[in-house]
Specification:
alpha+beta; Aminopeptidase; 33% helix
């Protein structure tokens, strides 16, 4: 239990800095491959000023959302973002994770898995959640592998609900229970 709450082997989670983080983040929002892997919404470019305003308006975490940026331990550079959201009420103790690694050079290097390990530790130890869920597109095999490495289990699919590159793809739904996460810690 001596591990710092927001630090992993490769990354640390931090609050976003509007001045420092807006420009690289806006750059990711102009990367069509990043956007394709992140969301089903159509790609729309964003300026650094727009991103800065969004970071500032997000403000402090509310009791239902916990947004973080992902920074490399080695050099403190911004790698991406991760958020944990709780449903409409805390009584079920369920959370949802969303993650985006914007720096392509970090893809496939273990930063995503390390981030997931840190945010799951936060979810289960600090927030005392019972389960954490996420959604991922079938066409994102790197993300599927990272989620499986972190202990997520495929729980279902929504068949052919996303159209990309002229074909339909499934959305996959994954989850991990507190007890499953805890068993992986020993």
């Amino acid at each position: 239990m001596n591990t710092p709450l927001f630090t992993g082997a490769l990354v640390r989670l931090a609050a976003a800095d509007p001045e420092k983080d807006a420009a690289p983040w806006a750059g990711w929002m102009r990367d069509s491959e990043f956007l394709r892997l992140l969301d089903t919404d159509p790609a729309v470019p964003e300026s650094a000023a727009q991103r800065k305003k969004d970071i500032e308006e997000r403000g402090e975490p509310k009791n239902t959302g916990f947004p973080f940026v992902i920074r490399a331990l080695a050099d403190d550079r911004l790698l991406g973002f991760v958020g944990l959201w709780i449903g409409p009420s805390w009584n079920h103790r369920n959370g949802w994770i969303g993650i985006g690694l914007g720096e392509r050079a970090t893809w496939g290097q273990g930063y995503g898995t390390d981030t997931l390990n840190v945010v799951l530790r936060y979810a289960f130890q600090e927030l005392d959640l019972h389960r954490v869920s996420l959604g991922v597109f079938e066409y994102n095999p790197r993300a599927l592998r990272a989620y499986e490495k972190a202990g997520f289990v495929l729980e279902g699919r929504t068949r052919q609900d996303t159209r990309r590159a002229g074909r339909y793809w499934d959305s996959c739904w994954m989850g991990i229970l507190h007890s499953e996460w805890e068993a992986r810690q020993s």
